[in-house]
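Hey everyone, long-time lurker, first post.

I ran two proteins through the pipeline my lab uses and got sequence/structure pairs for each. Pasting them in order. The first:
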Amino acid sequence: MSKNAEGLAAQIKAIAGGAPVRVGLILGSGLGHIADAVDGTAIPYGDLPGFPHAGVSGHNPDLVIGDLEGVRVAVFGGRSHYYEHGKADAMRLPLEVLRALGAEVMIATNAAGSMRPDMPTGSIMCLSDHINFSGLNPLIGEPTDARFVPMMDAYDPQIRASLRAAADATGTDMADGVYAWYSGPSFETPAEIKAIATLGADAVGMSTVPEVILARFLGLKSAAISTITNMAAGMGDEAISHEHTKAMAPIGAAKLETVLRQFLRDLK
């Protein structure tokens, strides 16, 4: 844990209170409304030295600390992506701060393209595993042997079971599947989609995998849910764009929020 993370955690506690956080949530494109539902304090990333500039439209770069469904959470309203600056470890400091605030669980959300006809736009998918197709890794340059992080059960089976129970309890359709990470920012070609579908991917996106690797490195249990905003290239006739992603994200976001709220109620 870096001294910078400990200092930022102390700064955040002075503003938002010292009670330990239980769950950290990282929000993807079009999901910022979940942060608005938290009863707590919003701190702009700009007030937290070293926090990344989340420069993608559809993200709200605030850290919100407070209660959601009776559970103390830290909600990251925006993330920094590899394609913004070429740094796979851009979210390392925020996740170190999350750990210093007492959290044991990190749940990431994202917008993704589907490769399954039975998982159309508006669906949500709980990640069971991932394929790091980019080959990039946020632990490159880490000098200690802690960099050799085992990734078996990277998406914690117990948390996934709890998310599944929450979906079932609320009557929410939620698929399970494998997420493939491309670096972006260009969308994938139809040939690339065909390749990763052959390898076993069910959805594709430009985030989440670095955060999950970092979470495991830091000792956080992790899980992730995708909102399906489009069919992947060659899988449908949608005109794929970031504007389309932002427009379609709210369709699945309502389902995702329903599942997360029930998960937190059960956790409480």
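...and the second, right after it:
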Amino acid sequence: MANVLTRAGSFIAIIFIGYFLRRKGFFKAADFDVLSKIVVRITLPAAIIYNFSGMELDLSMLFVAVLGFCGGILYILLGFLSGLHSEKNIRAFQILNLSGYNIGNFALPFTQSFLGPAGIITTSLFDTGNAFICMGSAYAVASSVKGGKTRHLALRIVKTLFSSIPFDTYLVMITLCLLHLTPPQCVLTLAEIISNSNSFLAMLMIGVGFHLSGDRTQLPVIVRILILRYLTAALLSAAFYFLLPFRLEIRQTLAILAFSPIASIVPAFTAELKEDVGLSSAINSMSIILSIICMVTVMSLVL
């Protein structure tokens, strides 16, 4: 318990350092994009390569990817049903801002530090299924509900997925694991060195990008979406831990992952949908705070 709280406190401290340094002018707004590119294109793929290397992957574990996908579908459905009697743009906003998990930039650094190899593999597989939702499928549904143009949208989703370096890395490493192959040792050594900085840079990036820009009059919308999100997460977490037929460390990881924040790419898709980006950013930032509290609580209970 003390170890969990100490490590979690360290993550929170790094987020606070990033936020504090941005407020003091050490980091500029543009620096978030630079940090994001470093994490998404360099340190996160390196962490995936190193953590997957030499792992024995059972075919039954691929069901974890299905869980990541189905979790996203569930939130899309809840967003649609909760806004059933609202205007189309409100319903579309709720669909988009309820769905997707921030795994690579947030949850993976947690599991990388707290859980063993099985936890890291579980997180990566879960994120593989989640990527189909947060990289375009949720936006496609929201755009369709709003009445926007969805021509060639399926092609755009596929293109977005396969142009994502982490997603491509997941696919390559999963394939290698299933074939019982490993990358050359020189690649693994380099990946290990780079991956050691992933947790720090990911948390620092979150702190630099953290901001609450929603109008106070929109607080009821923020509260409604977050309550629906985290009540559902609590039910999923319990179901993952108590009902799934996996071994304990996998169920522990899934119980924690259920409380991952809303996908960090959602505000960008909200802008493309021509909806309220400030409100979306506020929801996204608040979900990070709530997820830290919930994930640390679950860790203290199940680890």
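Reply from user beta_strand_b:
Welcome! Quick read of the second one: The CA atoms of residues 244 and 251 lie 7 Å apart. The longest helix spans residues 117-146.
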